[in-house]
Amino acid sequence: MDNLWFRCFGPPSESDDAVRLVCFPHAGGSASAYAPLARLLAPRIEVRAVQYPGRQDRRRETPAGDITELAGRIAERLRDPQGRPYALFGHSMGALLAYETARTLRSWGVPAPVRLFLSGRGAPSPVPPRSDVLPDDAAILNAVRSLGGTAAAALDDPELMEMALPALRADYRALAAYSWHPGDPLDVPVTVLTGRDDPVVTAADPARWAEHTRSGCEVRVFPGNHFYLDQQVAEVAEVLIGAVRPAAGR
Fold first, then answer.
1. Which end of the chain is more exposed for a tag (fewer CB within 10 A), N or C?
2. Beta carbons of 209 and 192 less than 8 angstroms apart
3. pTM
4. Four-residue CA torsion sign, 165, 166, 170, 171
5. Rg (CA), the chain
6. Residue 46: CB partners within 8 Å, gap ≥ 6?
7. Contacts of 228 (CB under 8 A, 6+ apart)
8. How many Å apart are CA 156 and CA 123, to the nearest integer?
9. Are 28 and 162 in contact (CB under 8 A)?
10. Degrees (nearest 5) of the Cα angle 211, 184, 248?
């Protein structure tokens, strides 16, 4: 896989039957957010985390400002799965990107992922949620702090905050501009994951993802807030392993 766009934390799986899990970070996030999960999943599942332009070792690149366009650029690098089963996992903004990437791959006739994992995000609609439409840097910073997680703690450091702001601005601009365009539901089973106390995902939001697939949708609720994954990484790893196990060895 493209080493510019994807990071592998740990040794690649030597088995052709091992499922490859492509992970999409949250707004302002980077591929390294998935390093703890990757270590727990290896070697049964090989994690490849997407590194968006404009952060960490790609910080000199211009961040993407359009969800659908960015999904297309990622899909272009996934369109040849080489016969290996793969799944997509996205958290928050990453859930939208994983979903739109799956839609793009289907339009190209690429074999579908064995499962789509959508975390910390309600189903898309033609109108963006209020939490995505933020007028300025102050509103963005307040929103990130309210969500908790390691990113919120980093914003207390002025130098780290200045480094993070360009990517955050671009990501929230992309979220505010995103509008879901109707289309046929995917033929991919979906697992929705959410934190019980997530301030931007209501109790009813996860189930609405069922409207976007013909292959079944299950919802898993974990203790915690928007970044429940930080504290529940072992439990999430168990869910992922159980959900993709039937695909391994097909």
1. C
2. yes
3. 0.94
4. negative
5. 17
6. 8, 12, 13, 18, 19, 20, 21
7. 120, 193, 194, 195, 196, 198, 222
8. 31
9. no
10. 75
**Catalytic residue list contains 107:** no
Tell me the per-residue pLDDT of 89-132, one tens digit each, with 9 for 90 and over.
Answer: 999 999 999 999 999 999 999 999 999 999 999 999 888 889 99
Residues near 151 by beta carbon (within 8 Å), at least 6 away in sequence: 26, 28, 29, 144, 164, 227
**Main-chain phi, psi angles of 214, to 5 degrees:** -100, 0
143 phi/psi in degrees, rounded to 5: -65, -45
Q: Name 8's bridge partners.
A: 48
Return the beta strands (E) in the chain as ranges.
6-8, 19-24, 45-50, 86-91, 116-119, 190-195, 217-222
Q: Distance between CA 190 and CA 229 in Å, rounded?
A: 18
CB-CB contact of 118 with 190 (8 Å) = yes
Q: Which of 15, 92, 146, 215 is catalytic?
A: 92
Name the CATH superfamily, with its identifier, for domain 6-126+179-245.
Alpha/Beta hydrolase fold, catalytic domain (3.40.50.1820)
What digits encode the pLDDT tens for the residues 187-234?
999 999 999 999 999 888 999 999 999 999 999 999 999 999 999 999
| Cis bond before residue 126 (omega within 30° of 0) | no
Domain boundaries, the chain: 6-126+179-245
Is residue 55 within 8 Å of residue 31, measured between CB atoms? no
Measure the CA–CA gap between 115 and 118, rounded to whole angstroms.
10
